[in-house]
């Protein structure tokens, strides 16, 4: 009898294959005292493990096929940077010497401290950066403990055509298994925005995360169907089910082949309306992948990574060098740099800042609220962004704006920074555009006022949905309430787009909704003309846009927005076009 389990589909598509259960054992980290005369040797052992971890990652990097999407290399590059970062190189050494503890325990303590920073983050993407810390730390720990690096070493004989079911999966594991012909991945834990999930999407491999107890309920070698569209896995399907999904696979392959015709073409609807497709970035190492998918600029550059896992603030010069590299790479296209989105929910480990601990961090001192209160955070960043504007079309984007007073304060700070740069004789674009992210209901409700004062608006759907519906989508107990199609969400989005149109300023969307092909036609019909998303989704979204007739779509969406029943809404969206 068939068994169906549900999870979160993080990479769309369908796969059929035999179940290959691979469980990575939990590492047992013990604490013990190192005598003072042996501390130098313990530090040397830790540094040797770091060196070996670096070598392993470099080997994986070299094994990546030349035709693999460039963002995959960027993931491994990010892990290589982490291995060389002071947070993982020097901090554990300091703990070993200060506490006279073994290297494994020192690394564990440092890992716990770093993860705590990410755990309390409100930004879903940055929150899942803790996965990368775990992957890198686990690699180093296994070397220290003399564990076999790849517990899946026996996979080569049985991987091709198989569906890997596991409790934990690292980027390196996924790359290795992909090269050996694995058709899909299922993990018991994980989040939709983790790098493992993003990698699965980049590779085009159907994948589910959060399939609780999958290793217990599924049996080795039994046939599985993985449906990444609806987040389900079917064990031992009957013939009719199998035949249905085989047809789905054939249809998907035909669709992907058809998308190739859009490479190198602009995003233009059938009736001639141009649409800008941009990318979200948080590492300059991701530039190549964005260029490979014909991105029309950067719709969101997250600056938080520059400030994290360090003991002192990045100065103006360090920030400028990063922003300049980004702008030069996208010369001729807009680059939207978001000012620091940190606060009570994102604890920066910086000596220069006091700790902020609110009763409710998500509603506390964060983003622009914190930046305006801490000029040593905001002013060097604004000066760096202004200087980068001399090199290209730079636009400064402010997160979590909720009232006009914040806008006025920010404009005053920008004027002060411009005056300081003029005094030093440093070039900048005096007309650099400044915009706000619409992330809270209050901002959407007064979007018209913002549109009269600012140069552009950008809708951050991730937070907008969470704050409007009072739902944390990362919480499994209420995640089902996180609904981009809730009538309240669509009204807030429509109000923002309309405010931009009436005041002749552009409105973009940089939340996940912008990169989800299920909503492309809907957003297009609502009037959105600038989308920003993961680079790997650009081609599919472009295909939908170029196959759309906007005059027809607008009429359909106008009728659709009058619906209130979720089921009717979904059916109407599926019928668009």
Strand order of the largest sheet: 1-8-7-3-4-5-6-2
Mean pLDDT: 86
Structure classification: alpha/beta
Q: Domain count, please report it.
A: 3
Distance between the termini: 39 Å
Shape from CA axes?
A: globular
Number of helices: 23
- CATH-derived architecture of the largest domain: Alpha-Beta Barrel
- Count of β-strands: 16
CATH superfamily of the largest domain: Phosphoenolpyruvate-binding domains
Using only C-alpha atoms, the radius of gyration works out to 24 Å
Helix content: 40-55%
Characterize the main sheet. 8 strands, mixed
The low-confidence parts are 149-154
CATH fold-type name of the largest domain: TIM Barrel
Strand content: 5-15%
Determine and state the CATH class of the largest domain: Alpha Beta
Seen as an oligomer or otherwise, the chain set is: single chain
Entry summary:
The protein has 577 residues and is an alpha/beta fold. Helices cover 47% and strands 13% of the residues.
Characterize the structure shown.
It is a single chain. By secondary structure, the chain is α/β, with parallel strands linked by helices. The longest helix has 25 residues, at 39-63. Strands 1-8-7-3-4-5-6-2 form an eight-stranded mixed β-sheet. It has helices at 39-63, 70-84, 86-99, 103-119, 124-127, 130-144, 171-179, 195-203, 214-217, 239-259, 287-292, 316-329, 367-373, 375-388, 404-424, 441-445, 447-453, 461-469, 487-502, 517-526, 538-546, 550-560, 566-574, and strands spanning 3-6, 8-11, 14-21, 162-166, 184-187, 207-209, 223-227, 232-235, 276-281, 298-302, 335-338, 394-398, 433-438, 456-459, 507-509, 530-533.
